[in-house]
Every structure is written in C-alpha cells, then in structure tokens.
C-alpha cells in the first residue's frame, strides 16, 4: 500500500520530505556512522541538532530573547502539573477557561496545588463554542490565566485571544502550534506536545518568559521545575533525542515554505475548502459554532450513526483514513494539521461530494 491521507488527531501526519530525509539519514547521520537514535546527547552532532532546533524555532516564531525554549518529556499532560507547580507563587490563585477535555484535565491537576477558578465554560453545549470573555472576568491578582487555544476534540479555536489584563497568560497550544501567527509577547508561557504539529510523540515544547522561572514550590520534583531545564539547556538528563531531531527538520520545513505566515495562508485555504463544502451540504453538518471553528480539527456529522460509520469505512477504503471523531463526541473529525497537503483536503471534499450524492 502507498501512503494514505491520514486525518488523525495525533499522533498525526508528518511532512513527507522530513520522513524521507530521516530515512536517508537513518543508518548514518552525516558521516557519523550511526543513527541519531544511537548517539550521545552530549555529542557534537546532537548538540548541533538541539541548538539548531531552538534557533530555527526562534526564527519562525520570532521568539524574543527574554523567553526560554525548552524541549521536555512527559507530554503536554505533564504541563498540567508543571504550570501550577512553577507559576503559583504569589497569591496561589489561577483562572482557567474550560473549553474541553484538555482544559478539564488541566483544571483537575492545578486544583491539587492552588486556588483555581473556572471563569467560563462551554460545557453546556458539549464544548462546541468558545465562551465570551472579557477582562472583568479575570482576577487581576491571579498568578496566571490559562486557556487551550485550539480544542482538538471539538474543533474550536480562539480566533481572538482574551484580554486578561496584566495577568500572565498560559496557553496549551498542542494542536495548533505553528499553524497561525501568534505574537509570543502576548503569552507568559506556551506549550505544545509534539505529536500534532511538531514531530513524533515524546517531546513537548515549552516557551516560557524568563521572570517566571525559579519560583517553583519547594516540594516540586526536580524534573518538574522549569529552572532545572533552563539551567541544563534541556540537557539536564537525556532528552528525547530522536523526536527533537525530527522536530528540527519540521521547523526547517516550515521555514522553507515561507514561515508561519505562509503556512497560515495554506491552512486557511484548506479549512475553507472543507467548511465551504459542509456549509453548502444538505447531508453533512458541522458541529462547532461557526465563529469559533478550528483551522486544524474540522468536526462534522451525518444524519445518523449508520451513515457516520459507513462514511468512515468507505473513506478508509479510498485512502482517506482516521476520520472517526473522538469517542466522547462521535461523528467525524478531519485533522488537517500543517503537514496535511492541500491535495489531501481536496480528495476528502471530492469523496464527501460523491458520498452525498450516493446517500441522499
Ligand atoms: C493532545 C493534546 C494534549 C495531550 O497531549 P499529550 O502529549 O498526550 O499529553 C493536551 N492538550 C491538547 C490541546 C491536546 O490536543
């Protein structure tokens, strides 16, 4: 079988040129006679990889000098604990916006360490929208405010960041990192697990403003203290070397395509292709509120469960795979991350057109 169009929510599609280069370099990385998986994380070759990954990411995101870039393990889910352990240090209070399963998990974790308020929630409508927010809702004394920029399961995104005043803003960007232009200065801390838009699972990118480092609670495990990894330049212990190597090549791929603005333009085109079709269809229906629809995860349903199942199965036979929605919401979800080619989305829309005619 050849390559399929993989619409998985994560781990997800990676850029083909990156996979090809990794294959070429598998047995002998640049004349070292070994794979990146086999070399010391203190070697010259790997030092160039990790510093190169950081440099390229700094370029494509325009990351200011007073922010640190960390490559950590433990997935995005470990950040649910690291954020409160490190950032709750003045009032021990933080405000969270509940927009889905990932924010719920983060809230539950933070509640172990501090006085956590949920300032708004969209749970009343199965998280199919982003709650209306304004500055008055955020406690100006809080140590931080927390949002999930893109809600992977429901297909919603903040098209505009909330005004939280002077409170440090923390964002879980796991499913829309590098998908659109963000000004890093608007955030105190942003993090993303790699397996959606960065590379293979195993590495989590954290971008943290300098003044937030060094205030961890005294019982914080060493590995959960950002300062450990700032001081160790992400090499306090063995990092996820191979994932970082792939991430570096993905960052270079983004840069070569014209950077994040160019990627964002393509992402908007891809999303528009799908949403335009869904909006004009009498069979398919989008499930997220129009004003908050994600560019990365497009959620939709058919009139009944039977048709949903039939669609997923027939699409699979046509090389369009992993379109089943998350088990908690059902229906379908097409994840169209950076590495999904425009052609994949065109093929999906063509298939949906055909399916609509045949199943009306
Ligand atoms: C996938 C995802 C996570 C969880 O990531 P892990 O690396 O598996 O812990 C957290 N937040 C969001 C928004 C996600 O999409």
What this model shows, in words?
It is a single chain. This protein is of the alpha/beta class and 360 residues long. The protein has 2 domains: 16-257, Aspartate Aminotransferase, domain 2; 259-358, Aspartate Aminotransferase, domain 1 (Alpha-Beta Complex). Helices cover 34% and strands 16% of the residues. It is built from 9 helices and 14 strands. It has helices at 16-24, 44-61, 75-87, 101-110, 226-231, 241-256, 259-279, 305-317, 342-358, and strands spanning 5-6, 67-72, 93-98, 115-121, 144-148, 150-151, 156-157, 169-172, 189-193, 204-209, 285-286, 297-301, 320-321, 332-335. The strands form 4 sheets. It has a 7-stranded mixed sheet, covered by helices on one side. A 3-stranded antiparallel sheet has the order 11-12-14, with helices on one face. Strands 1-13 form a two-stranded parallel ribbon. The model has no long low-confidence stretch (mean pLDDT 98). Bound molecules: pyridoxal-5'-phosphate. Residues 10, 75-77, 102, 148, 152, 172, 174-175, 193 line the site of pyridoxal-5'-phosphate (PLP).
Give the names of the bound compounds: pyridoxal-5'-phosphate
Indicate the low-confidence ranges by residue numbers: none
Mean pLDDT: 98
**CATH architecture annotation name of the largest domain:** 3-Layer(aba) Sandwich
Distance between the termini: 31 Å
Fourth-tier CATH superfamily name of the largest domain: Type I PLP-dependent aspartate aminotransferase-like (Major domain)
């Amino acid at each position: 079988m050849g390559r399929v169009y993989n619409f998985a929510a994560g781990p997800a599609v990676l850029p083909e040129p990156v996979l090809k280069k990794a294959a070429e370099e598998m047995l002998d990385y640049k004349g070292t006679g070994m794979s990146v998986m086999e070399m010391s994380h203190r070697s010259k070759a790997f030092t160039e990889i990790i510093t190169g990954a950081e440099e390229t990411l700094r370029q494509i995101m325009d990351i200011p000098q007073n922010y640190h870039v960390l490559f950590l393990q433990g997935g995005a889910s470990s950040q649910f604990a690291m954020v409160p352990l490190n950032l709750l240090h003045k009032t021990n209070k933080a405000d969270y916006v509940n927009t889905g399963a990932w924010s719920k998990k983060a809230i539950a974790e933070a509640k172990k360490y501090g006085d956590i308020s949920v300032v708004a929630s969209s749970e009343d409508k199965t998280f199919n929208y982003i709650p209306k927010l304004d500055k008055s809702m955020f406690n100006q004394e809080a140590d931080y405010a927390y949002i999930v920029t893109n809600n992977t399961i429901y297909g919603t995104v903040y098209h505009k960041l909330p005004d939280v005043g002077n409170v440090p803003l923390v964002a879980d960007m796991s499913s829309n990192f590098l998908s659109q232009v963000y000004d890093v200065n608007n955030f105190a801390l942003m993090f993303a697990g790699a397996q959606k838009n960065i590379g293979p699972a195993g590495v989590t990118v954290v971008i943290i403003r300098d003044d937030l480092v060094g205030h961890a609670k005294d019982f914080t495990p060493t590995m959960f203290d950002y300062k450990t990894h700032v001081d160790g330049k992400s090499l306090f212990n063995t990092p996820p070397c191979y994932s970082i190597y792939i991430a570096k090549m993905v960052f270079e791929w983004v840069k070569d395509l014209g950077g994040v603005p160019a990627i964002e333009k393509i992402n908007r085109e891809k999303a528009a292709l799908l949403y335009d079709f869904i909006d004009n269809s009498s069979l398919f229906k989008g499930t997220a509120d129009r004003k908050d629809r994600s560019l990365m995860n497009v959620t939709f349903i058919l009139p009944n469960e039977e048709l949903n199942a039939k669609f997923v199965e027939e699409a699979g036979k046509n090389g369009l795979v992993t379109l089943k929605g998350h088990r908690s919401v059902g229906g379908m979800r097409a994840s169209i991350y950076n590495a999904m080619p425009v052609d994949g989305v065109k093929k999906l829309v063509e298939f949906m057109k055909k399916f609509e005619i045949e199943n009306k």
